[in-house]
Amino acid sequence: MIVVMKASANEKQIQNVSGKVQEFGFTPHVIKGVESTVIGVIGDGNRDRIQSLVNLEGVERVAPISKPYKLVARSTKEEDTVFKVRDVEIGGDTFVVMAGPCSVESEEQIDAAAAACAKYGATVLRGGAYKPRTSPYSFQGLEEDGLKLLKAAGDKYKMPIITELVSVDTVDIVAEYTDIIQIGARNMQNYPLLRSLGKIRKPILLKRGLSSTLDEMLLAAEYIMAGGNYNVMLCERGIRTFEKAYRNTMDLNAVPALKGMSHLPVIVDPSHGTGRVDLIPALSKAAVAVGADGIIVEVHPKPEEALSDGPQSLTPAMFEDLMEQIKPFVAAAGKKLVILK
Ligand code: PEP
Ligand code: MN
Which ligand is nearest to the CA of 235? Predict the structure, then answer.
């Protein structure tokens, strides 16, 4: 159920309703919109009593949520979710570019990558420190040393950073260094990991599982939001199909579909979505055209020497060209490219 508050409702009335929701055995989730506030009523309490909330001051209506996912649903909150990561605004009418190497490999490598990404207009620096590799014999990441190097590069170039979290054991350490936590495709349905993110207040970029439906992805986001962490971005990163000409099939249908189903920002990852640098500019422009709120791409100073995902990593010159190519598309979509101050 949701309790929709009147536009004129004040903080005291919102708190009063939340208190009643709790009294009836549910957890209240206060979701503030521009027009009005909605209180999500989640859990297994006394349903009969919820309807009586309509008589409380400041309440507009009490309505059921028919979807399996609730807090993430567009029907729960009509306006786009917009949040800030340091000075970078994500969602709404902004377009964010996150870029950097697949893995943090050394101080020189992450510094060179960050310098190029900042110079050509990325606003968030990416880099993996804990790598979920298909083979146990592949490079697994520099772990905490990688987090330190990524943070130092982010601080130097004044970029917020994003890095992947792969295990509940490292939530605290990863959260200590990073501005945004990435949950990779392989962990999209790792429910203990998702639950652990509900308890922290770092924004999350949740990647679509390799064979996940949109409903499954939205329910994964619901796990995070049900814990009280509302700053979640959804990321389309390609799915497994029969086609072998590229690493994955970029499902761009997902972007407008997800935007209709949910109020959360949607980011596209054309690097993993295609696995081919020659396809990244076209798919990035297509991502803008279908309504994405940003892209995340892999950039490496020397892709031929990369310890992971070299074949899909853009050189600094290719990244510069990509940024020039997407600018008119971002403007045509009525969005503002987020620029670092
Ligand atoms: C990555 O971002 O480097 C990564 C491993 O992505 P995905 O989880 O989408 O495969
Ligand atoms: Mn990668």
Answer: 1
For ligand 1, atom 9, the nearest C-alpha belongs to 185
184 ligand 1 Cβ < 6 A: yes
2-63: CATH number: 3.30.70.1140
Question: What predicted TM-score, i.e. pTM, was given to this entire model?
Answer: 0.94
Average pLDDT value for residue range 140-146 = 97
Residue from 218, 294, 205, 312 nearest 258 by CA: 218
Distance from residue 195's CA to the centre of ligand 1 (Å): 20
**pLDDT over 90 (residue 135):** yes
Give the helix/strand (H/E) hosting 218: helix 214-226
Q: 208 CB under 6 A from ligand 1?
A: no
Residue nearest to atom 4 of ligand 1 (CA): 184
Q: Which atom of ligand 1 is nearest to the CA of 296?
A: 2
pLDDT band with cut points at 50, 70 and 90 for residue 62 = very high
Distance of alpha carbon 10 from alpha carbon 29, whole angstroms = 16
Centre a 10 Å sphere on the Cβ of residue 320 and count the other Cβ atoms it contains: 16
What CATH number does the domain located at 83-337 have?
3.20.20.70
